[in-house]
């Protein structure tokens, strides 16, 4: 550069002092930076943006400003090279310009890394396998570590000390740093565990009563997991709590293709009795019950014929209305078009209590869609409530105010 200044002095016949030559060098560097900026941002980047719509990966890169930040990083590198070539090494002007250029390079290199991670995250969400991994939390952890390292480099550059001195000094502040960055550190470890053990993915149905969460996972971050509840509210859960506490993931149910029905009705035990011949003949008209009744009738006749005992309900076997009712429900479910036959299907009795004898329906629907599931379940129990009287059974129901008023009115009429 000094040779160029000497040639200019010989051609113009003007002797330049140090300040004038310094201004000239800075002007050339500034002019070069402007020209490179125009070429990169007005020509190269605009050309890429025009062709971005034709390629998904190029569109994602453009949206995350990766090329813009790389262009700014390249401009800083060029300015730093010019300062090293054209200015005297060790001079104050060279030190200031080099320091500014290096700070520029580190900041935009860090932002470029952030953009690159965002591009990888967005591209991974387009792939079925990678989209289910909690990569966002891991990438946020990488961003945090990178920002800390670049911050250390910036401070060391400004104070003129080696980064090793600052890093060694951080050992004394480890306890403070662990306290300040406790949630990010725990979240990073939890995110790795969630990914490695396939515990949670985006879109999973998560239920965690401790935090009032019951809905679909919409975001898995470094420190928080967001759940959109079924009432459209958003619950934010600390990421580390998914490892330290228990939660229910309904993704297995969704993947199986069948959702469980597990609901019972309470039968009034005073309505349970043996079936007489007339009731058996009437129930044989039901095509679902006819095979059962005939097989059961022959079995009971054979048993009773071999029994050498007086005819008594205590000695002989008979069919009950509650047992026949269970057999009917079992056949009804097995013939239902929306009930899975390859999964557990049963009608069972539970322990009787103050509310009667519970008869539980345990089956799986052929769909996991919530609206369809509720409709199937409601249709089944609508039918059960409607046919229970055909078996001479009654549903237990706690007396209501209307029942008490009716009973009181009956007593009044009798007394009058």
Sum up the structure in keywords:
416 residues; SH3 type barrels; 11% strand; five-stranded antiparallel beta sheet; MscS_beta-dom_sf; single chain; MS_channel_C; mechanosensitive monoatomic ion channel activity; stress response; alpha+beta
Report on this structure:
It contains 16 helices and eight strands. The chain has about 425 residues and is of the alpha+beta class. The chain folds into three domains: about 1-195, no CATH class; about 200-250, SH3 type barrels (Roll), CATH 2.30.30.60; about 260-400, Alpha-Beta Plaits (2-Layer Sandwich). The strands form two sheets. Strands 4-3-2-1-5 form a five-stranded antiparallel beta sheet. A three-stranded antiparallel beta sheet has the order 6-8-7, with helices on one face. α2 runs antiparallel to α4, α5 runs antiparallel to α6 and α6 runs antiparallel to α9. Its main location: membrane. It comes from Intestinirhabdus alba. Keywords: Cell inner membrane, Cell membrane, Membrane, Stress response, Transmembrane, Transmembrane helix.
